Amino acid sequence: MAKKTEIPVWTEILDLPEPPERQMAEQLAFVGINEDAKRQMYLDGEPLLRHAADWVAAAYDHLSRYAPTAKALGWEGRIPDEDLYLRRTFFSGWMGRTIGVDTSDEFARYLFHAGRVHAGYGPGGHFVPPQWVSLSLSLILRMFATVVPAERIGLWTAYLSVQQELMRLGYEASLALGKGRTAIKANALGLALPALPQALEVHVDSGTVREALEKIFAFRPELRENALEPVPDAEEHAGWMEEVRRWRFKNNWTVLKNGRDVSYLEGLSTRLKSGDSLTFLPPGR
User: Distance (Å, rounded) from C-alpha 261 to C-alpha 270?
Assistant: First the structure.
């Protein structure tokens, strides 16, 4: 009987969206939020800060009084003091960073994570329909417009639109985890544990390890930093070749299916069934 060929996971290619920080940089460039635009927006910092605390209070007062958003936040009846405090703290932090025109890589991850939280992957597990997220940003923009001169409000509109897009990416990556007939669990060990500290339920349609991994890495870009490296590639668009990046595992990473190394099964094409588990095992443990 012929010996089965080993297929190390680091020899196979994954097709993933760019991480949040790359997407944010591209989108900011598209809408024209460059260093010159930021210098203009800094002129609005002091007047915006004078109103910021009142706006945070007003926003949550409005959200708690409007029945659909109160229901989405789990605030029907009495508002839990601790929940309100945590949300206002989060929102105040976001407000301060926004007024400071933060365009850092870390802020891109922060916005992406906000999308995950709104999709039910936050401390309270509350699912917030996307319209309330985008409309809340519209309320903030309307507040900004009472202070910002007309010639600069377009810059703030563009900046908040990019923020909304980053949150949408996190939101959609979260929803994708629940789409598919086959439900499996993913977890991490050793050096990968901080990037995936809790077991994650993932649904897949094709039932392959590859599909599960692509959903996991889209949802947890933190894990991608540890586990993957980019692979330059190109694809044709309208007759032109365009550079793209694919991804692969760094050397000596292992993915286990129910405790067995998938490299000795069918690699990333290994089939999954409901109830299976996938485990990330980095070198060095």
Answer: 10
Question: Rounded CA gap, 156 and 95, in Å?
Answer: 13
Domain coordinates in residue numbering, the chain: 20-176, 178-281
| Spatial separation of the C-alpha atoms in residues 87 and 56, rounded to whole Å | 10
- pLDDT tens digit sequence for 19-37: 999 999 999 999 999 999 9
Written as six digits, the tokens of 42 are 């800094």
* Half-sphere exposure in the Cβ direction for 109 (13 Å, CA): 10
What global pTM score does this model have? 0.90
Under-50 pLDDT residues of the chain: 1-2
Helix, strand, or coil (residue 206): coil
State the Cα–Cα distance between residues 180 and 201, nearest whole angstrom.
Answer: 11
Neighbour count for residue 85 (Cβ, 10 Å): 10
- Give the CATH architecture of domain 20-176: Orthogonal Bundle (1.10)
193 burial via Cβ count (<10 Å: 0-12, 13-18, 19+): middle
Which run of H or E residues covers position 243? strand 240-249
CB 217 within 8 A of CB 253: no
Q: What CA–CA distances, in Å, run from 209 to 16, 42, 214, 220, 265?
A: 14, 47, 9, 16, 11
Question: What is the rounded CA–CA span in Å between residue 112 and residue 20?
Answer: 7
- As a whole number of angstroms, the distance between CA 107 and CA 123 comes to 20
On whether the CB atoms of residues 190 and 285 are closer than 8 A, the answer is: yes
Domain 178-281 CATH class label: alpha beta
